[in-house]
């Protein structure tokens, strides 16, 4: 996959865009958060 064509998602906690990563290749459909920090603070308190 070329870097130009990587799919992206928006993190619901910090509202940042994050791109597909090779380590997420098998599980991209289930990836919701951009980082462990955002995953821990699901209430949206991270800014």
From TrEMBL:
The protein's name in its UniProt record: DUF2256 domain-containing protein
Organism expressing this protein natively: SAR86 cluster bacterium
């Amino acid at each position: 996959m070329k870097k130009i064509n990587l799919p992206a998602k928006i993190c619901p906690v910090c509202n940042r865009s994050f791109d597909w990563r090779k380590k997420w290749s098998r599980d991209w459909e289930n990836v919701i958060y951009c980082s462990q920090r955002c995953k821990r603070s699901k209430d949206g308190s991270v800014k």
